Predict the structure.
Amino acid sequence: MKHSLLTLLLAATAFGVQASEAAKAAPKGDPARGEPIASTVCGACHGPDGNSQVAANPKLAGQHPEYLFKQMSNFKGHDGKQPERVNAIMNGMIAAFDENQMRDLSAYFASKKQTGESAKNRETIEAGQKLYRAGDMTKGLPACAACHGPSGAGIPAQFPRIAGQFPEYTEAQLKSFREGSRANDPAKMMRMVAIKMTDAEIKAVSDYVAGLR
Ligand code: HEC
Ligand code: HEC
């Protein structure tokens, strides 16, 4: 148990170095060029400023641009291959856009301010907070804070912001990582976390994170 936790954290560190080097080399997007596409195409589901009103559609506002770009690339199939992140809606939506447009869209949504959700379930807040801050050493579950930061703002470029997101979306992602239907996490970092979690733990931490600032 302890050993797998250590492996996970070492993987996270090694990946961090790689990813920040990749990010340095990448060209920057232009938010002004992203705006017209965001407001006409993406806005219908994610909100024109990236603050979606519907829990199934994640908020994109305030997310790190490198993470947004990575997700868009993962939704897009490359060289006729199956996309790395499978979602019928997004696989279709992103198909029409090239790399430069995806960088512009990433820069646009990253520049917007997130209107965060709030925690709704009083009974599970404490349990959610405990998991977030400390994990559960007895079963080798690392603290979310170790990778997503103490306030859930993420650690650019590789660890996304998860604070303020819809709890339903967070819960759905954790379950997808657990069953392996979402498998685009580098070094299996999220799959190794989610596989150790029960439904109740996933629900508690998702609700807690919605209210985290
Ligand atoms: C018809 C609704 C719809 C439209 C239009 C749409 N999306 Fe999405 N988007 C979704 C859904 C649903 C998800 C969540 C997919 C999942 O559950 O894995 C998503 C997920 C995403 C994510 C992943 C966010 C994360 O936190 O991991 C990004 C990035 C994204 N969309 C960008 C875009 C962009 C850019 C556009 C416009 C070109 C767009 N979307 C248009 C419905 C939509
Ligand atoms: C070892 C580092 C690590 C730990 C610990 C960790 N995460 Fe993650 N998490 C990641 C990485 C890396 C990604 C980005 C995956 C990708 O690139 O698609 C991620 C992605 C996510 C996402 C998807 C976000 C989105 O917008 O689609 C959620 C939700 C999430 N983590 C929640 C959690 C929660 C809750 C915990 C604690 C129970 C946790 N994570 C612990 C590294 C970690």
Residues 76 and 97 are 9 Å apart (CA to CA).
